[in-house]
Amino acid sequence: MTSAAFLILLVLPLVSSQSYHWGACPDPKIQPNFNIEKYLGTWYEIEKLPASFERGKCIEANYNTRPDGTIQVLNSQFYKQKFRTVEGTAVIPDPREPARLKVSFSYFTPYAPYWVLTTDYSTVAVVYSCTDVLHLFHIDFAWILSRSRFVQPQTVQYAKQLLAGEGVDVYRMKPTDQLGCKD
């Protein structure tokens, strides 16, 4: 067995709740003229590709600037009868492409892509992240976010069509339960 095949067999169980595909990551178009200041604040998760770190309900993300110029990311969810939060840091590595952020939730993990494909800043945002594994396969994440816990079905359809048009497989996307959540 080659070392690459062995590595895949080791990694596959770890990503079983993720969305993975053969080949390299797609390279979707990002939001032109993205304005991070307008993006800050609370976003509620409407739908997502499966993610092992997001299994609860009432999932939301709060973004705020820090004095050092980084962005505080505070994600929360209700999971196993508890309200849980995790804090991360987002950065904009290239100011010429501010919609291509990178985010990390631990000092021990590398920054992962967080690409804003589109947003109107007041209603909906479509976000994508993808990581290549040895250029053999990739693990991707996609989120449809809103400033409110509920959106019209046509908004979700628009977001899914945009993702699919950029080469993202939306078949496994799942709605996030936002019923009974406290604001």
Q: How far is the N terminus from the C terminus?
A: 53 Å
Helical fraction: 10-25%
Radius of gyration: 16 Å
Roughly what is the average pLDDT, rounded to an integer?
87
Strand content: 35-45%
Strand/helix succession: HEHEEEEEEEEHE
Question: Please, how many helices?
Answer: 3
The biggest beta sheet reads: 8 strands, antiparallel, barrel
- Flag low-confidence runs: 1-17
Layout of SSEs?
Blueprint: H1 3-11, E1 19-22, H2 36-39, E2 41-48, E3 57-65, E4 71-79, E5 82-91, E6 100-104, E7 112-119, E8 124-133, E9 137-146, H3 153-165, E10 174-175
Antiparallel strand pairs: 1-9, 2-3, 2-9, 2-10, 3-4, 4-5, 5-6, 6-7, 7-8, 8-9
Structure description:
With 183 residues, the chain is mainly β. The chain contains three helices and ten strands; from the N terminus they run αβαββββββββαβ. The protein has an eight-stranded antiparallel beta barrel with strand order 2-3-4-5-6-7-8-9. A hairpin with an 8-residue loop joins β2 and β3. It is globular and about 40 Å long. It starts with a helix and ends in an 8-residue tail after the last strand.
Write out key terms for the chains shown.
183 residues, mainly beta, eight-stranded antiparallel barrel, 3 helices, 14% helix, globular
Can you give me a brief rundown of this structure?
By secondary structure, the chain is mainly β. Helices cover 14% and strands 41% of the residues.
